[in-house]
Amino acid sequence: xxxxxxxxxxxxxxxxxxxxxxxxxxxxxxxxxxxxxxxxxxxxxxxxxxxxxxxxxxxxxxxxxxxxxxxxxxxxxxxxxxxxxxxxxxxxxxxxxxxxxxxxxxxxxxxxxxxxxxxxxxxxxxxxxxxxxxxxxxxxxxxxxxxxxxxxxxxxxxxxxxxx
Length: 164
Prior knowledge:
The protein is an all-alpha fold. The protein contains 7 helices and no strands. Helix 1 runs antiparallel to helix 5 and helix 4 (47-65) packs parallel to helix 5. The radius of gyration is 16 Å and the shape is globular.
């Protein structure tokens, strides 16, 4: 399996293909405003905060892969878990759609890229990193937070998916 095929498989599983894990499309299905802002404690993140965090990093790295260097400075990872003041059902649906569209864009850009680009070092990145490794880590990052979302849903009682 090529790195390109591997990444496309990982992105599909994160986005909408039920495999060993539930994808984001299922993890975020049927949520309402009270579900997305709920926190088990003040030290925990809400689903809304996690989705904002995922959208932020997925888009940031997609822009970087396309050659646009991030201009927004992030001093602390914690700053990317932000809430939306006065969130509505409509603004939530828009955010979920943007997250899905971002993952679809990742799939498209990987489909269109060459295998050799995936083996290139990431330009202007402070670490010695290769593209395919960074994108694989991005998928792992998404998977980690999908698990958090499902955990939160189970804790709040909004997880009504029949488990196999």
